[in-house]
Design brief:
- The chain has about 400 residues and is mainly beta.
- The protein has 8 helices and 26 strands.
- The chain has helices at about 20-25, 35-50, 55-60, 70, 165-170, 260-265, 360-365, 380-385; strands at about 5-10, 25-30, 80-95, 100-105, 110-120, 120-125, 130, 145-150, 160-165, 180-185, 190-200, 205-220, 225-230, 240-245, 250-255, 275-280, 285, 295, 300-305, 310-315, 320-325, 325, 330-335, 335-340, 345-350, 390-394.
- The strands form 7 sheets. An 8-stranded antiparallel sheet has the order 10-9-4-3-13-1-15-14. Strands 18-19-20-25-16-26 form a 6-stranded antiparallel sheet, sandwiched between helices. A 3-stranded mixed sheet has the order 2-12-11.
- A hairpin with a 6-residue loop joins β14 (about 240-245) and β15.
- The longest helix has 15 residues, at about 35-50.
- The two termini are about 25 Å apart.
Length: about 400
Amino acid sequence: MNHAVLEVEPIDITFVRGHRRFADSGHGELLMPPPPSLAAGAVRSRMLADAEVDLHAFAQGKAPPGPLADVLGTPRDPGRFEIAWVALAHREQGRDGGGGKDTAYLPLPADLFVTEPVPGRPTVHRLVPCPVDSLGVRGSFALPEAPVLRQRERSKPSGRWWISAAGLARHLAGRTPQATELLPSLRLWKRETRLGIGMVPERRTVKTGLIYTSDAAALTPGTRFLVGVRGAEGALPCEGLLRFGGDGRGASVSVGDAKLVAALFDAPVPKGRRFRLLLLTPGLSPSGWLPPGLEQRDGAWWLRLDGLEAKLVAATVPRSGVASGWDLALGQPKPAWRTIPAGSVFWFEVVSGDTGPLARLREEGLWALPQRDWHGERERRRAEGYNRVLLGVG
């Protein structure tokens, strides 16, 4: 694992808003986990402030002085800095008020299904791809296989669960995670709704009748954000405060423990005829479900990288999202991209070559694949942490 880890602990609540306009409902919805671009903006802003960089000049395209120029570059042409992932660290508190060991948690992958036949005792199930022709159903399937949940009795998914880094590593190795490696989201964070009133900026007065609400995340005691960062050695903040999330809410920052997530990145590259690709961070995709960089040929989608050629045979993808943001240099919104949610899973079948090149894919993310027109957004979105992946046996 070749990236640093920061621990970010909000002082109060954290506003993590999506991209739906307030005008649609008068309500700002909460987005958890936060997109990696939120962490990118918070950490880079703190680095610029520590170096006493003229923020107006930086926004207009002037690179910071000294070594920071290679790390951060400019808003239009970023340097080496990039976000690798965002997770939560949780320390369970004992009955005596003391704390136990820290555990890193990530959202549950889309190919895992959790039921709760006995309240408080979850059971983990894995989705397994099966040929569509063998299912006895008809539909507009885009791929030759569909992930299937095999159960003796029908059941519904239980709540919203997060999985530990060790449990996710077990799952990627082809084994079913244990129930003890899951944690319900309510043990990590709770949703709070806050009331807001619109203001007239020029007068600093209230706009009559303009009232709105926003959801915020209140992390439970012992829970913090973990942020993986690459390419910023020696320049990252190690203590103090930073602005994290909407409304510039404060959070403390410190050096995190890389061992909490080491199992996800130290595992060997999967070998064999099949492998799984899991999105560690949201993936940018014009279609909203297909990973960027795949080639379409003969009615199928292909992953080609350094002699490896693999066919996409199955996928499980939740509803797509949107990535946008504000361009400080141009003073306007960034182009909006549809995103494949983190946790989406894609099964590939190797047709030629071996899986050795997958090490590069895990290192560089989907940016390692041949990319088409990104409208000048490639390097900026790479620095913001999109398109990062993990790999598992198929």
